[in-house]
Design goal:
The chain has 336 residues and is of the alpha/beta class. The chain is built from 9 helices and 12 strands. β2 and β3 (33-34) form a beta hairpin. Bound molecules: N-[2-(1H-imidazol-4-yl)ethyl]acetamide (AHN) and zinc ion.
Length: 336
């Protein structure tokens, strides 16, 4: 008796997990009838409350500025969090030289789900926070570090919830979640230099692109999240993403628009941004896009509180976290 109940419960549970899309019967060229059956795994529901809580937890350490105790403590937190959901967590530690000669101790943190397959994609975000609010309207704040609630923590918060979801229900493909360090230690606004200052952003991703955590690392494509938590965020189709990975931009934008997030994912091209996706495209040759809050009406072209002291918890909106998180889950669980 118990066995029968168990059997039916299992059946019900399995049908909840797996949905079968039967496309209508088609007549083949020789006249025989073919039936196309596709099995898709159910897309989990993103949890914006958890993602928000992971933002709160990151901010609780204080600004995650390179070489600071808060940065060190946050690394331990992120590693332990990922290890609680994933058996293959790699920490790539090393040093890089900043624009001003400072040696920065970085940790790129990588969680690999289903590491055995080459049929994989990766998702990334930076977890360090900027040491200077050099775009703050008040010049007295220009040397203060920022919380980086949006610029850093928002993307990481979303990726942590995605890692949690993947640990519960497995997608058909392999997924790597890469938390890059040392992204935001670029030269301040008033820095005078005759060398190309673009090269001083994304130091952690540059290192990883040259020396990935796994020799000959390969993925079909990558998605970078940058400033993905502000209220009414607008994600324009960033120029370098359109140059290196137009099909992935279209896939993500179509997915977001289809599931109801057209007010965030605008079919509108934005400028080219030097960000963590650039070395991945240029050096590793993996087509990688940047989902980044761009705003033509703001002074910098970025999200209005970019590199200001107002990039704090008050500028995070769960609706935006949800739009990005649910879009990514839909992309991941539709990959075969
Ligand atoms: C430059 O300002 C050249 N790139 C911006 C990359 C960035 C900083 N994203 C977030 N913070
Ligand atoms: Zn920044």
């Amino acid at each position: 008796m118990n066995k029968t109940i168990n059997y039916f419960l299992t059946l019900i549970f399995a049908s909840m997990l797996i949905s079968c899309n039967l496309t209508p019967k088609k007549t083949g060229s020789e006249g025989e009838t073919t039936e196309k059956k596709t099995i898709a795994i159910k897309v989990p529901e993103f949890n914006p409350d958890s993602a928000y809580f992971y933002v709160v937890q990151q901010l609780a350490f204080g600004p995650r500025v390179m070489n600071s105790p808060a940065h060190e403590k946050c690394a331990v937190f992120l590693i332990n969090k990922l290890k609680s959901w994933c058996q293959n967590v790699t920490v790539q530690k090393g040093t890089v030289k900043a624009y001003n000669g400072t040696i920065l101790n970085f940790s790129n943190i990588i969680a690999s789900f289903n590491p055995g397959t080459n049929n994989r994609i990766f998702l990334c975000s930076h977890w360090d926070s900027r040491p200077y609010a050099d775009h703050d309207p008040d010049p007295k704040n220009h040397n203060k570090p920022i919380d980086g609630a949006n610029d850093g923590a928002s993307g990481v918060g979303i990726l942590l919830d995605i890692a949690r979801q993947i640990s519960i229900s497995k997608p058909l493909i392999g997924v790597d979640i890469i938390l890059f360090d040392a992204e935001d230690y670029g030269p301040p606004q008033d820095w005078k230099s005759n060398v190309n200052t673009e090269d001083f952003w994304g130091l952690g991703s540059q290192y990883w692109a040259n020396q990935p955590h796994k020799a000959n690392y390969f993925a079909k494509y990558g998605i970078l999240l940058d400033m993905v938590g502000a209220p009414n965020a607008t994600f324009l189709m960033e120029g370098l993403s359109m140059h290196y990975a137009p099909d992935i931009v279209k896939l993500v934008w179509e997915t977001a628009n289809r599931i109801g997030f057209s007010r965030y994912f605008l079919y509108d091209e934005g400028g080219q941004i030097t960000d963590d996706h650039v070395p991945v495209n240029k050096i590793r040759g993996i087509p990688t896009i940047d989902i980044i809050h761009l705003d033509r009406s703001s002074e910098t072209g970025f999200y209005p509180y970019w590199h200001t002291t107002k990039d704090n918890l008050a500028s995070i909106d769960k609706n935006t976290l949800n739009a990005v998180g649910q879009t990514l889950l839909t992309v991941i669980y539709n990959e075969k």
